[in-house]
Amino acid sequence: MSEAGEIVREEGRIGRVVDVAASALAFVGGLFLLFIVVLTCVSIAGRALLTVDLCCGPVPGDVEMIEIASGVAVFFFLPFCQLKRGHVTVDVFSGLMGPRGVAVTDLLGNLLMTAAAVVILWRLELGLEDKLRSGETTFILALPLWWGYALSMVGAVAFALVSAYTLLRSFFEVASAKAPASRNHG
Fold it and tell me: Residue limits of the Tripartite ATP-independent periplasmic transporters DctQ component domain (predicted)?
């Protein structure tokens, strides 16, 4: 088999692993969103029932838990969004460029996204170190703030890795002059 064939086969294998990992992380991110919805409903119901003396009120620390879960969910969705080309793009000129031009612009976009993902990972890691050192906690539940940072790091690492993979995928698309899968024009 030719060297190019081996590379394509390996890229396909890696792509399947990346797809499964990004999908699993997005599923867990969805569970975090479900937790947010349920917690919000229970807390609102508690507030409403408190006014008629039927319940004990809102869930203590609901806002703290929602803040942490929201941040984690966002980071868990980023790898899937990047892999599936779900970020916002401006396609004003893509119809005029042809497959190779579209592939080159996607390559540049993926290069910039990979750089952004690495910077986000770096800064989040510094934030995690700071929260670990300071021992800072939430006000009501006294949850250590580093928990949210640590969980978000999982998504940030995956985002950086998936971004690097999509950059590699874009190199193959440019080399083969093939338009990206979601942007084929014909």
Answer: 36-171
Q: What is the mean pLDDT of the chain?
A: 89
Confidence of residue 33 (pLDDT cuts 50, 70, 90): very high
pTM: 0.86
Give the number of domains in the chain.
1
Q: How far apart are CA 95 and CA 99, in angstroms?
A: 9
Round to whole Å and give the CA distance between 28 and 79. 12
User: Which domain does 84 fall in, by range?
Assistant: 3-183
> What are the tens digits of pLDDT across the range 52-97?
777 788 999 999 999 999 999 999 999 999 999 988 777 777 778 8
Long-range Cβ contacts of 65-68 (<8 Å, 24+ apart): 65/35, 65/39, 65/141, 65/143, 66/36, 66/39, 66/40, 67/148, 68/138, 68/143, 68/147, 68/148, 68/151
Question: What tokens appear for 176 in the block?
Answer: 């083969």
Residues 69 and 31: their CA atoms lie apart, in Å, by: 10
Burial class (CB in 10 A: 0-12, 13-18, 19+), 49: middle
